[in-house]
Design a protein that fits this description.
The protein has 16 helices and 6 strands. Strand 4 and strand 5 form a beta hairpin. The strands form 2 sheets. The chain has a 3-stranded antiparallel β-sheet with strand order 1-4-5. 26% of the residues are buried. It has 602 residues and is mainly alpha-helical.
């Protein structure tokens, strides 16, 4: 029984030591990388904002367009409230045209105004360019976070070592930043500037600009409607209420036109003609200087973490020593129990072999049944078959039915036995590993491990003489058990499967040969199926590594592979030559399962 509490205590003490020292670098690197990553992100956005000529016109454009639409909206509200009281047809028609024109512009603006889409578009463009830098920076983060060469040497963890530790990390990170990320940073800024300055690519900005420019044409259309309204007023059409409404609309049209001519036209011109100095990317030296400043800002925070780590480590290491000494027995038990169980591999091999053999036997049984099925299906046309052929086929069918039943029973019996293979275990010999010696070696290893892995600890202890002897004893026991299980599988193959296959060969040799003389199509179909089944059974045996032993005439007799069932004198054959193979034998690899029955010359 393994004392898991002792192992847990060792693991806890080790975790404190390693997290205290090895975690210091990770925390330091995380703080420095986080600072420089967000610092460079801010720098990309800031540099792009200072160099992108259109970035300052986003809110102005939306604001100007929105103010113009406000004039239209006020006109729509007046007409919504008063148009029902306009009785003069000519005035009502003009106001209706104006109302429809204003309403379309108001609705179009409302569809694009939510959440200030121009600003959202600018932020999206900036984010895309910043993401380009972040994605490339991810490899740097992973490399430093998982590197061990940056961990401080435990022997050097003393007062005064911090500056060398911090400066080494700073230079390593800075060197990689400049070497690997300067081009990425410069490209991010350049792409951001170009994206913000590209009117055609700024879909939302371009939409507002296009709509605002269109308002100049719309202004002329509205002005024609206004002239018509003034004409109607000059004719003193309608009542005072109509005149008041008409005058209010004319006032709004006039204000909108004045606002457009005084501010909107100037804004459009400024956007379309705005020029600036070509963007000049920072040099490597400027980029490196900015990154060094970002990294240096983390020094005080990391120094405080370093001092706390140094003061706690000595006490933690002493605790680890004590826990390993008190858990010596648990370490030995853990090593033996975590050793790869040879019976697991042995059981897997035996079960795989047993399953393959059962599958092969079941497939052979199915092939016997296929012949029977054809026999039954042809019953309706049996009248055309001669009595001799019918008697032979009846006999074959009855024999194959018996063989299928017999093989099914054998498969069921063997399958039940194969289930016991997975639960078979042998008693283990008691180990005599020296606990004190193992504990000392384990302690020396544990102090150097970057990750406390009990299986890895066992691997490092595996070469010791007591452990090697223990592993050999258990391994030998497993192999002896495997050999016994394989003998059972071989016995099933030889006594059940190959017995039925061998007797089927006798049917082929004597009964089916006589059927080949028939001209009846049904008999020919039957013989063709038998031949096909024969080929498939040979293929099934081959998949299980079983090959036929079928000597040809004039082959020399071999007592290992052949068994003489009759010896004859023959002038055509020399003594010891095989005259005829009666039934085939079978081999599996180098093992002879059954010998071929032959007639040999004497």
């Amino acid at each position: 029984m393994i004392n898991t509490n002792a192992l847990d205590n060792i693991a806890g003490a080790w975790q404190e030591c390693t997290s205290c020292i090895n975690g210091l670098t990770r925390r330091t690197v995380d703080a420095m990388l986080l600072r420089v990553k967000y610092g460079v992100m801010d720098r990309v956005i800031g540099m792009a904002g200072r160099n992108a000529r259109l970035s300052g016109y986003d809110e102005k454009l939306v604001g100007a367009y929105g103010r113009l639409i406000d004039y239209y909206l006020r006109a729509v509200e007046i007409l919504d409230k008063r148009k029902g009281d306009i009785s003069t047809v000519s005035v009502r028609n003009i106001l209706r045209e104006l109302y429809d024109t204003f309403l379309i512009r108001v609705q179009l603006f409302a569809a694009h105004r939510s959440d200030n889409q121009v600003v959202s578009e600018r932020i999206a463009l900036q984010s895309a360019c910043v993401s380009y830098f972040i994605f490339s920076f991810a490899d740097t983060e992973r490399m430093f976070r998982h590197s061990k060469y940056n961990d401080p040497n435990l022997a050097e963890c003393r007062e005064g070592y911090f500056d060398a530790f911090f400066d080494k990390l700073l230079e390593n990170i800075l060197e990689l930043l400049v070497e690997k990320h300067y081009e990425t940073y410069a490209k991010s800024v350049s792409e951001c500037v170009n994206s913000l300055n590209n009117i055609a690519g700024r879909k939302v900005l371009n939409h507002y600009l296009t709509q605002l420019k269109y308002e100049n044409e719309l202004k002329n259309i509205i002005n024609r409607y206004a002239i018509g309204l003034r004409h109607e007023l000059g004719r003193a059409a309608g009542n005072s209420y109509e005149k008041e409404t008409t005058q209010d609309i004319l006032n709004l049209v006039h204000e909108a036109a004045e606002f457009y001519d005084s501010e909107c036209v100037e804004l459009i011109l400024a956007i379309e003609t705005q020029t600036t100095e070509p963007y000049r990317p920072e040099t490597q030296e400027e980029f490196a200087g900015a990154c060094r400043e970002m990294l240096s800002n983390t020094r005080l925070l990391i120094k405080r973490d370093y001092d706390e780590t140094l003061s706690n480590y000595a006490e933690m290491l002493k605790r680890l020593q004590n826990e390993v000494e008190s858990g010596a027995s648990a370490i030995v038990n853990m090593c033996t129990s975590q050793m790869r169980d040879p019976f697991i591999d042995a059981t897997r091999r035996v079960l795989c072999a047993a399953k393959a053999t059962i599958d092969m036997a079941e497939s052979i049984t199915i092939n016997f049944c296929r012949i029977n099925s054809l026999y039954r299906e042809q019953d309706y046309s049996r009248s055309s078959i001669g009595s001799s052929a019918k008697a032979i086929m009846d006999g074959i069918n009855e024999t194959l039915y018996i063989k299928a039943e017999s093989l099914n029973e054998a498969i069921e019996t063997f399958g039940a036995r194969a289930k016991d293979f997975s639960s078979a275990r042998l008693a283990r010999e008691a180990n005599t590993i020296e606990k004190t010696q193992f504990a000392q070696v384990a302690f020396d290893i544990i102090k150097r491990m970057n990750m406390l892995n009990w299986e890895r600890l066992f691997e490092l202890l595996h070469d010791s003489e007591p452990m090697a002897a223990y592993a050999k004893r258990v391994g030998d026991m497993a192999e002896r058990w495997v050999e016994g299980a394989k003998k059972e599988i071989t016995r099933f193959v030889r006594d059940s499967v190959l017995y039925e296959v061998g007797t089927f060969e006798e049917i082929l040799r004597y009964s089916v040969t006589r059927l080949r003389e028939s001209d009846d199509d049904n008999v020919k179909d039957y013989v063709e199926l038998v031949d096909k089944v024969t080929t498939q059974m040979e293929q099934l045996l081959a998949l299980d590594g079983i090959e036929m032993i079928r000597p040809a005439p004039h082959d020399m007799f071999n007592g290992k592979e052949h068994e003489v069932i009759m010896a004859e004198k023959s002038g055509e054959f020399a003594k010891g030559e095989i005259i005829k193979c009666v039934t085939s034998g079978y081999r599996q690899g180098e093992k002879i399962l059954t010998r071929a029955n032959v007639i040999a010359a004497k």
